[in-house]
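Changelog excerpt

This revision adds worked examples to the README so contributors can see how folded entries look when concatenated. The first example is reproduced verbatim below.
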Amino acid sequence: MNAPQPPDYLARLNAEQREAVETLDGPLLVLAGAGTGKTRVLTTRFAHLLKTGRAWPGQVLSVTFTNKAAREMRERVAAIIGQPADGLWLGTFHALCARMLRRHAELVGLTSSFTILDTDDQLRLLKQVMDAAGVDLKRWPAPGLMAVIQRWKDRGIVPGKVTPAEDSDYANNRARGLYEAYQQRLRELNTADFGDLMLHMVEILKTHPEVLADWHRRFRYILVDEYQDTNLVQYYWLRLLAQGHRNICCVGDDDQSIYSWRGAEIENILRFEKDFEGARIVRLESNYRSTKPILGAAAGLIAHNTGRLGKTLRAGRNDAEGDKVRVVSLWDSEEEARMVGERVEQAQRAGQNLDEVAILVRAGFQTRAFEERMITLGLPYRVVGGLRFYERQEIRDALAYLRVLAQPADDLAFERIINTPKRGLGDTGMKALHDIAREQRIPLYQAAERALPGLRPKPRQALGELLQGFGRWRELLGRDGHVVTAATLLDESGYTEMWKQDKSPEAPGRLDNLKEFVRALGEFENLAGFLDHTALVMENEENATAEKLSMMTLHAAKGLEFDMVFLPGWEEGLFPSQRSLDEGGEKALEEERRLAYVGITRGRKQVVISCAANRRIYGNWTSSIPSRFIDELPPEHVEVVNGAGQARQRAAELPGMFNHAPMMARRPRVSESPAWDVKERAPRPDAMRVGQRVFHQKFGNGNVIGVDDDKLDIEFDKAGTKRVLDRFVEKIG
């Protein structure tokens, strides 16, 4: 007699996936490697619980990290069970806790109709609390305190439980008191911020056994997605709810835990077996995304981490042979951008869809060189998870300062920077300036000069210093050039200091972008040429329906996949990040390696890793050495291109640098002068020559009639003689 056939939804699973779906009793950890079908396992397990009658829809608690993941799970479950998936407790941590908190709000001093503050309202309320306490908001900006409070809430710490070890010296050790005052003000307004949703529910479950028992009776099964990304308060909430039936299934990948900077604790997944006695572990190791060489390279790299539970990805596709991972060594970062551009063009000519091509960088400032290269080549692109380089707030502000420097009559630019950073010029002061400008028909800059005597002392002094500064910077521009002037202007105007004082998580990245901005100036002969270029770049319109290459940080790439992936900038100090190593030591190094693993496993068919012997970082040329991660790639899965071995040999000859003993190899430090010590570019090995026929995207075809380092004098067929940078022309013939 034939054995009964499994349902269709189980027949579609491989052996590992099916084991994870059918192991229903007791705690289960599903270690799901990249591309192994974790979403299919989660949704099928959910549907299996309902189809077999193990639970009603309302008896399963299913937790995701994004609303998109929750919607996708709901749709897939409905497709399997053949009817709308109604009555589910399915959603993000915060959405589920908000739903629970409505039922118990009075236990934390709220009513069920409490409102949830967004980030702007949260910041506004925090400023009010700080102002009432007499805190100097210029010295101690509110975003900094908000980050401290959020960190406490992510760790499940209420105001009265902040220990000395967890304390902060923010605002002269007043952070704990301000936290308590802020929480009291939230209760008075019958509001909660996002951090409160989980914090309040954890406190309720810990201090009210009858409430916890009620939720234990309700939830027979718990499903958790992306468990490696949970923070402590999320961990406490899950532990409390799982004490009932103990049927908790967590799906995650310890090798893809890359969010410690926003509170994620990899220890949550590593100690699962200790937290839940008798827990089973199922490893999903069949990858249906990438080729064997890509998986082999990723597995060999991540094996150097000691803080992992261990698994080895294997190819689940029949057509998974493919190309080896290419490691390309280049002379400098500009050649790197050209190399990527050329390979993308070649792939496009061969029929590659640009939507399936991605450039994944460690730091946001790296995208600028690739953005400009794509514009030069006419290749459309998108920056995923962020703005294009010249659209970012700090870059627009810096451009506005330079526009006023070049043209004081630029009212839009002057209005943008006149009170950035704050100079005490409120709405009344700005109205006075506009009235003078309108009545006398003069630019705002001149109106500001004439309005000075009538202003209050503080704004009069601050605005007077700004106007005097512009006079001084214009003299400097004629004497020392546009690069030194721009760096000095940003420092002396107080703009860079404003971001140095900002304690928000975004501030360091903004400072990095400003340094890259000054570095970009060095590629142009004068300020006018740079401003013209940026105007043309920002005018580059997006076609919403066209194919586009994607650029993003490695953090933003998690969960995505592409046919062709470029991983530039694999050098010590940049990747792994020296800042991360300085702050986190060995633990940070392992997270950086996990980030590299995530990058490699985004690729389906081709992965190209590149490093440069010379790189301009924050306006200065530095000699770079290849990342230790390149050395950790298994040779049998890697193809070295363009002399990467020679670059590695050169690095190996530097004692204590590439061999990483001690662990933290230091990259050459750049000067910290007020003007950021911008130096001349490194020589190009493929410099243009007189007589070379070239093409420029704006001016057309022409002949090179003079060469000055990277600057070319070109006689164009139709546009006459122009001086341009060599990076913006292409050789013909």
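The second example, added in the same revision:
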Amino acid sequence: MKSFHNYGKARRGSCLEDGCAHAEDHQRWTRRDFLAGLGLTAGGSLMVGATPVTALGHSSLLGQLHHASSDRILVIIQLFGGNDGLNTIVPKEDDRYYNVRPTLAIPKQATLPLTSELGLHPAMLAVRDLYQSGEMAIVQSVGYKDASLSHFRGTDVWLSGSDSDTYLNTGWTGRQLEMAYPNFDVQPTSYPPAVQIGGLGTLLFTGSQRDMGISVTNPALFSRLANSGKYYDEQQVPATPFGEEMAYVRRVANDTFRYGRAIQGASSVGINHVQYPGQNYLAQNLAIVARLIKGGLGSHIYHVGIGGFDTHGSQGGINGVHATLLTRLSEAVEAFLRDIAAGGRRDDVLVMTFSEFGRRVEQNGSSGTDHGTAAPLFLFGPGTIGGLYGNTPSLTDLDNNGNLKYETDFKAIYSTVLQHWFGFSLSASAAVLGHSYDPLALVRDPSDVLVTDRSRTVLPESFVLDQNYPNPFNPTTTIPYVMRQQGPVRLDVFDVAGRHVRMLLDTVVPAGAHTVAFDGSGLASGVYHYRLRTPEGVLSRQMALVR
């Protein structure tokens, strides 16, 4: 068989044939996970059953959610190892795909139809109904400039929300830990605003000064915590002086853990209403998340993961390692969303996946794929504007290293979640991410979200954006808005993929009611979004052009 292992090598260590360099890359990656699991990198983690759970402190992001009394929750699923995007969203009409993947390519007739050109891996059958009902969004070719092909660095970039040439030791949701609550040590909240479940490490929520979690490796912890609110057993110790000292240390540790009672209360109230698939670690973790959410824990962000996506060898096509992983992901997400719906929290939860990178276009000599760049990202739940976003990745127009070119910067998706899901203003989102990114049209009904700035969370009293009329329209419509006082206004139109279509207004306007005409001549039929931006915040609505 022809070896494709040398194809587009961009970094020593990203391919199997790099030998010691590749092993060293994995050693660094796994060493970090090992240290994080022991609580030796930044803070520590708690165990729920055999599952580590890290309860972390406040960031400015989480502080705003707390003060807003928001019910909205983000569940982040990390696909460890680098998911093969081309075998997940299959370019079923591209001959090159089949030519360069002679044993790995998914046969056209086996894919689950998405469009005339693309199909979903058949292993994701469990979420097909979500896609068809508009509760699953697929963003193609997500990545970033000068992508790293190292697991260690690639993971850090995604978790920190940084550029490839910027090295941060804080996470994108924990960038400003302790800033919102400088007196947190003396005035803590009773619940953890953010929770990690599984041995994932704590970078995502790490702040500049502290993490608020501790680490215990005890397989009986979840039931113990649910029953007593404590995670160390103070009774089962040896009847010796050493045992007495051990009981004392455990008692002190139990007393200093802030969130024991909150987790106990949520665990005792929240129950799972559905049967989760067995032999599925991700499903077990999501079952815990569902139980805590339905039990009213109050946390706004959960982070879980599933490993095994580093498929250098024996990856498989319809069947095999990769297919098994996609099955577990799909079945776990589907069960989780059903469970959340059964508990009355259906509209409050948004699920987002990410992986540190994708895989190369061509298969290697070990019937697998080596480290690549861009890959698809998924959003699940009623809060999404379901569908397929972005262009089909080109297998011929590659970057200088022979890898897929990214189209959507992952930080733009983070910005979308911050602004459209959690209601952050553009400036507040930029403060978290370090740059300003216009949100994409991925989240449903953004106009229903609170508008915020860095210091407050309020409904916009200073301006109103009304529904356009007529709607649907062809080809012209009128967009009304109201300004309570004079100020600068910008009004833009975006297509459903988040691409900027037209700027309708960018000026200072007086107080009062105003209208702006929009002529959609030359545009294709479809859903478009118009967004009004003022110094007080941003509001957005959608409209439909029907030819």
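Reviewer comment on example two: The radius of gyration is 24 Å. The CA atoms of residues 230 and 254 lie 6 Å apart.
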